[in-house]
Amino acid sequence: MTQMATDTTAVDELGSRYQLSAADRCDSCGAQAYVRATMASGELLFCAHHGAKFKDKLQPDAVEWLDESAKLTAS
């Protein structure tokens, strides 16, 4: 079952709030990560560009898909 999270926080296994930070970097290019894909085999972090690029391929198999790219356009 895939969980979708489009707000700026998600709840981890211990019930605490998880939020991507500036220290989280894209696994493809090293830019700041705004997307976290939790797969059965581990976690992938992507910038908004690479998150959108790989979304159709990865999201169906993801345990959780956290997309915080709305932070880029928030006022």
Structural write-up:
It is a single chain. The chain is of the alpha+beta class and 75 residues long. The chain has one domain (3-11, 21-72). Helices cover 15% and strands 28% of the residues. It has one helix at 48-58; strands spanning 3-5, 10-11, 17-18, 35-39, 42-46, 64-67. The strands form two sheets. It has a four-stranded mixed beta sheet with strand order 1-6-4-5. A two-stranded antiparallel ribbon has the order 2-3. The longest helix is centred in the C-terminal third of the chain and has 11 residues, at 48-58. The chain is globular. The chain starts with a strand and ends in an 8-residue tail after the last strand.
What order do the helices and strands come in, and which of them pair?
Layout: E1 3-5, E2 10-11, E3 17-18, E4 35-39, E5 42-46, H1 48-58, E6 64-67
Parallel strand pairs: 1-6
Antiparallel strand pairs: 2-3, 4-5, 4-6
Features:
two-stranded antiparallel ribbon; 75 residues; four-stranded mixed sheet; alpha+beta; 1 helix; single chain; 6 strands
Short characterization:
By secondary structure, this protein is an alpha+beta fold.
